[in-house]
Amino acid sequence: MKKRFSIIVLFSAALIGSQVHAQSGYGKVGKTTGKPVAKNAAANANLKDTTKPKTTTTPVGAPSIAAPAVTFNYDTIIPGSFDAKPEVALRNNFATDRSQIKDRKPLEYENLREDDNFWSEFIWREIDAREKMNQSFMYPGRDDNGDQRFFTILLNAIKNDSVTAFAPENDRFTIPMTKDQVMGILSGSYDTISVTDPVSGTVEKTISKRPKFIPDSIYTFRIKEQWIFDKEASRMFIRIIGIAPIAKQVSGGKSSPRVLFWLYYPDLRKSFAKVDVYNPKNFSSRMTWEELFEGRYFSSYIIKSSANNPGDKSLSSMIKDPLFRLLEGENIKTRIFNYEQDLWQY
After folding, report:
1. What is the per-residue pLDDT across 20-63, written as a single tens digit (0 to 9) for each?
2. Helices (DSSP H) in the chain: which residue ranges?
3. In which domain, by residue range, is 218 found?
4. pTM across the whole model
5. In this structure, is residue 6 part of a structural domain?
């Protein structure tokens, strides 16, 4: 029994001695990492660092596994352009009290009976804000109502005054749009661009950008109106039916107009009556936007008429030359003027 015990003790001692001899080439164990620290450079070269990922070489001709593409999204929309909240002055910004502006209401329309409608014609016209007479449509000043650009006023009517916008598919106000849908049109969709590695041919990353939306990019507004000669009042009435902002859409290197949405003008009159139009000559002699449209203080050109138009076509689809289109629009204005004058007998 004693012989067996002594043999076991000798065998254990020999095993421990061999382990100590195997670790004799290394120093003390590091305090922070718990890994052995090599004594010399040769031991450092042989020491394997398990914290770094293993790199393997792909044999020539073997199919390479593409890493997942990294996506970068860049929003290039100018912040605070149309969705910025108006900065309301905490003190009176004028020498006089102008607090009654928010209480202004437009005058009610006269009732036009269908039976008294002796003659009627629909006219579509466009307002170009780049013309000198229409520069008030692009006035970028700031007021308690926010940005004074006409397009911003239309957006404020949608967001703050619950004016319903309608889809641009037609001008008969058939498909209503929500506020989010309107703002989605302005923000645009992401344009995705894939970047390929020229060496391996794999897609490294995907860059998505939104198109820039500049506030001054919308300077054209389309108007749908009806001219009515009322035999009871013996006068011509002009009633605006709808207003639509038009943006320039670039497709295939060509720019084409795009109607964003339609707004019903009678719904806009209450909002227009609370906002003044910029007057460069006299600040105290400013009119409201409702008075501007009712008084016809804007310059425009006709793009379509319901008279002698069985195909319901615009002038641009029938006349290719832009100069002749303008002349045809002036001919329509002259024809309506002469028709009204010929109704009177002297």
Report:
1. 444 444 444 444 444 444 444 444 444 444 444 444 444 544 44
2. 2-22, 41-46, 150-160, 179-187, 265-272, 289-294, 315-318, 322-342
3. 118-188+213-299
4. 0.70
5. no
The amino acid at 222: R
Distance CA(80)–CA(77), nearest Å, equals: 9
Total tally of structural domains belonging to the chain: 1
Q: Which of 154, 177, 133, 166 is nearest to 279 (CA)?
A: 133
Distance CA 331, CA 340 (A): 14
Confidence of residue 74 (pLDDT cuts 50, 70, 90): very low
Rounded average pLDDT over 243-257:
80
| 81: confidence class by pLDDT, cuts 50, 70, 90 | low
Nearest to 263 by CA among 246, 241, 248: 241
Question: DSSP strand E in 60-141: where?
Answer: 70-74, 117-128
- The pLDDT score that the predictor gives to residue 288 is 93
Any domain includes 293: yes
Residue 33 within a domain: no
How far is it, in rounded angstroms, from Cα 22 to Cα 246? 84
Q: Is 16 contained in some domain?
A: no
Q: Which residue has the higher pLDDT, 148 or 334?
A: 334
First-last CA distance in the chain: 150
Q: How far from the centroid of its chain's Cα atoms is residue 122's Cα?
A: 31
Query: Helix axis angle, 150-160 relative to 179-187, nearest 10°?
Result: 150
- CA atoms of 107 and 294, how far apart (whole Å): 10
